[in-house]
């Protein structure tokens, strides 16, 4: 067990390095950058990433040379000013030196400061965590609370009308993007054309500090009800069918037939024998499902409901070429993904002690 965990932890190091290296190399050739954005703002034009540059791009820039050929919008500006901008953003160093410096700092979770917000990146991420945790946690719990009972019922009722029409509903819900559900809920319940029941934006109300503890709890759930609902409607399809198929696979096994022949009640057979074995793969996948909900698929929901979370932060950072925030989010997401994969394996082994990862090659 400990040898397996140690091997997995050691394997995370080259994996993280590979992810950072590939991403860093791609950025060298990506159009635009922080210096390009500053120059565009000085010229009074759109600061979007529309310019291309040679020699490895802005991330590969050095302190000298023909600046007008390196950056669009640099014409007429003092080369010393542009050199100062490059030094400010750290682009006066060679790319390989900046990469190794980044890896060294990231090893101690030192992510530097945001280029355009002028705050430490780690503090910026911590400020956005409550929104992403709220969406990811409640969406995962709610989707599992729906999918597990529904999957069990579908397995027991396999082939019946209930199974057929619930499958149709689940598939339709899975096929419709969550942001369309979000827009529909806003139109229906946020004063669009029908009822004004839920707030349109934010995670809490403006008078949050003045509310009592009970009032804060109510206000919190009042604000996240529609975002979580819109994300959950399309999220439980996979776990529902996974639960159903797991139950069907277990129900057809010999030990279930033996339990029934002994005269055990159907509920005892299902929940005393089948449930534990069928739920292994579903429960073991909970950490991964949470991280997926935590970091993925929430960008549009955060934008629609004006929730300032990690999804929106990552998108804005990419658009603005705020590289410290972009790489910090990438590093944290990749690291958590690897840790969660390990936790999923350990959870699976905890649920079923017969599984021994110690004998498996990593």
UniProtKB/TrEMBL annotation:
PANTHER family: INNER MEMBRANE ABC TRANSPORTER, INNER MEMBRANE ABC TRANSPORTER PERMEASE PROTEIN YEJB. GO terms for cellular component: plasma membrane. Residues 129-344 form the ABC transmembrane type-1 domain. Keywords: Cell membrane, Membrane, Transmembrane, Transmembrane helix, Transport. Belongs to the binding-protein-dependent transport system permease family. This is Putative abc transporter permease protein. The keyword Repressor does not apply. InterPro entries: MetI-like, MetI-like_sf. Its main location: membrane. SUPFAM superfamilies: MetI-like. The chain crosses the membrane at residues 9-30, 131-152, 164-197, 220-243, 278-305, 325-344. One of its GO terms (biological process) is transmembrane transport. It comes from Methylocapsa acidiphila. It is a multi-pass membrane protein. The keyword Transport applies. It is found in: Cell membrane.
């Amino acid at each position: 067990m400990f040898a397996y965990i140690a091997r997995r932890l050691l394997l995370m190091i080259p994996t993280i390095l590979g992810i950072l290296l590939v991403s860093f190399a791609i950025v060298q050739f990506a159009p635009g950058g922080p210096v390009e954005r500053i120059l565009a703002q000085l010229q009074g034009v759109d600061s979007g990433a529309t310019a291309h540059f040679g020699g490895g791009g802005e991330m590969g820039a050095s302190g000298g040379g023909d600046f007008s050929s390196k950056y669009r919008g640099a014409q007429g500006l003092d080369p010393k000013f542009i050199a100062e901008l490059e030094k400010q953003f750290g682009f006066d160093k060679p790319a390989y030196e900046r990469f190794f410096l980044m890896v060294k700092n990231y090893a101690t979770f030192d992510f530097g400061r945001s280029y355009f917000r002028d705050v430490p990146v780690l503090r910026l991420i911590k400020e956005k965590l409550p929104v992403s945790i709220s969406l990811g946690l409640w969406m995962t719990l709610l989707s599992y609370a729906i999918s597990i009972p529904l999957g069990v019922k579908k397995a027991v009722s396999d082939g019946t009308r209930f199974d057929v029409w619930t499958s149709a509903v689940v598939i339709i819900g899975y096929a419709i993007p969550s942001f369309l559900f979000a827009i529909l809920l806003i139109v229906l319940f946020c004063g669009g054309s029908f009822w004004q029941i839920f707030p349109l934006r934010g995670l809490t109300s403006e008078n949050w500090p003045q509310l009592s503890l009970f009032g804060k709890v109510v206000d919190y759930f009042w604000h996240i009800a529609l975002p979580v609902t819109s994300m959950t409607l399309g999220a439980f399809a996979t776990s529902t069918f996974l639960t159903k198929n797991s139950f069907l696979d277990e129900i057809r096994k010999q030990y279930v037939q033996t339990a029934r022949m002994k005269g055990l009640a159907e509920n005892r057979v299902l929940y005393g024998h089948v449930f534990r074995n069928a739920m292994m793969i579903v429960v073991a996948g909970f950490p991964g499902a949470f991280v997926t909900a935590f970091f993925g698929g929430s960008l549009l929901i955060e934008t629609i409901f004006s929730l300032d979370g990690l999804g929106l932060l990552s998108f804005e950072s990419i658009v603005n070429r705020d590289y410290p925030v972009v790489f910090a989010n990438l590093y944290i997401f990749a690291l958590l993904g690897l840790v969660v994969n390990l936790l999923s394996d350990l959870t699976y082994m905890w649920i079923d002690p017969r599984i021994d990862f110690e004998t498996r090659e990593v």
